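Shape is hard to put into words, and the shape of a protein is harder than most. The fold becomes a row of whole numbers, each drawn from a learned catalogue of backbone shapes. The outcome of that step, for a single protein, is printed below.
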Amino acid sequence: MSKNTPPQQPPLTWSGTLPVHPQYQDSYYAREDGAAESRHVFLDGNALGERFAQTQHRFSVAELGFGTGLNFLLTWQLWDRQRRPHAHLTYVSVEAQPLSADQMRLALSAWPELSARADRLIAALPAPRAGFQHIHIDTHVTLLLLCADVSEALAQVQLRADAWFLDGFAPSRNPAMWAPVVLERVAALSAPGASFATYSAAGHVRRALTQAGFEVIKGPGFGRKRDMLRGRISTPPPTRAEPVWAQLPQPPPSTSTLAVLGCGIVGACQARVLAERGHRVDVFGRTDAASQRIPALLVRAWPEKPGEHGVSASQRYYQHAFEQARSLYARCCPQSWDEYDDCGVLHGHDAIRQLLDHPLIHHQPEMIDSAQHDGRRWQLRWDAGQGHYDQLLLCCGEVPAALRHAVVLPTHPVAGQVAHCNAASSRPRWGAIHALPLGTGTLLGSSYRPDSRDLTLQQHESLKLVEQAAACWPERGFSHARVLSAHSGVRISSPDHLPLLGPCPDLAWWQNHYAGLRHGPRHQDFAPPQYWPGLWLNLAHGSRGATGAVLAALQLCSLLENSPSPLENDLQAALHPGRFAIRRLRRGQTVWPTDANRATDRPAPCLRD
């Protein structure tokens, strides 16, 4: 998905109170009663009432054609009536032309009993844009809206759907939605035993579904429609990640014990996302570290404008990440979150405390002394005790010494400091540096000292920040500002300035098995990758950790749960921790040099918020 522009919104026409798409000349729901049709075809056709009542942990519904959102609202309503206490529903829907808020509100006004849910849905929807939109509805329901052409969306989504709603416009009017290649992909994205239902009974649709591997049953349709189709797929066709090195390990059991190492903003967000999905989490780390005493952090989409080669992975990632950060911070730490039109300011230390304030999160203010895997679980030791965990999530700045034998990555430290001055600022600004409102003054940041972990405050750096602010914004009076205080910290960055997100590769295995990549054979000719068991990375966010932390946490949670991913497949590959090893192997080099900061692998200086 290379574009990040708003998708086209259809100029609806109306047949009485019935919305009609002008391109396809087809209505969004049945004239008799759209809600009754949806319940008959999709909810009952997939036997969702009984299946929701039996779901212990997670259930995924996937839909082709979000339309007015009516199917989603009815599914959400049924889920709330039938679900077990800790179960979670993820609803994934493809829509190339999403309706505007006003269009959706008018189309749904025919069902007053759904008005409260419709209002919550519309309020939660971000501004329309191409790509994936991960929307928090409530603790038990997530909506993943795929704003793209159906073939592109299904090629990019990571999904194992338990039930499908095939609800595109009529096959005779919108044949692309019902093409055999689309229905083959539907089968490939299904969980074993997944069901489907559709109002259509067209012969070519039935044949394509059968050819894709579904057992198809014809049943009574709704209203004036005599027939509809429903069915199941026992054994979905196998799929393989492309490229093969990006293939993920098998997800762990839902009963896994989890430990998060690091309780900065990234670790706190990771723990909170897991806890909100019903996982018990132990968090290790001190909350008084120097980097966590920075008074305020800038949160924004970065960078704003496409480059000469179009929209980059970094731009797409941080646009999506900003939406997720804004949603979670406003919900979980509103006292520490100041929101503006295009950015936000997070008061980091207080926000971390609020994010960790959850009954399923246990904070252990200790550093790990040792970590050993016994072939089944990780054994951690710290000053006050020890514990065993199935899964370790590294969300810290520096990799703990106890795990450096496993985690060998091309990261580098950047030290710097911020200065609090007495010049007033009404809203955040950024350029060569950033300026954030902080009480009656302004926080200026930050300086940049590559390859340094030195936290010593430098007076000349604070004075230089004031000079830079005066040059950037001469009208704000920074030239006469006085520095009130300063704070230092270290951020860890990667060569391409994107985080390392996913399972931890076993680089010795990669060296032995992927060295042949330099000769150019196809990826399919190589074995699936090997990883350190139960070790997951959420590292190297650099200066943009407050922006990327929430989306990264959601992605790692989806990998642990085997639930639909909030990221497109190509973005997952762009963030994969093994990507740098693959680049070196293609050049005929070892997976990583002994000196991880060798000049040939060093990045150019990054733009700083």
Q: What stands out?
A: DSSP finds 16 helices and 29 strands in the chain. The CA atoms of residues 91 and 143 lie 5 Å apart. The two ends are 26 Å apart (CA to CA). The mean pLDDT is 90.
